[in-house]
Amino acid sequence: MRADNPPSKIQATLASHAMDASIARAAPKATNPLTADEANLVGVRLYRDHCTLCHGDPAHPKSLLADSLNPPPPQFMNDMADMPENQNFYILQRGIRWTAMPGWKSALKEQQICQLVTFLSHMHGLPPAAKQVFTETVMRTSQSAN
Question: In this structure, which long-range contacts are made by residues 81-88, counting pairs with CB atoms below 8 Å and at least 24 apart in sequence?
Answer without folding.
Answer: 81/120, 81/121, 81/123, 83/23, 84/27, 85/31, 85/32, 85/117, 85/118, 85/121, 86/27, 86/28, 86/29, 86/30, 86/31, 86/32, 87/23, 87/24, 87/27, 88/116, 88/117, 88/120, 88/121
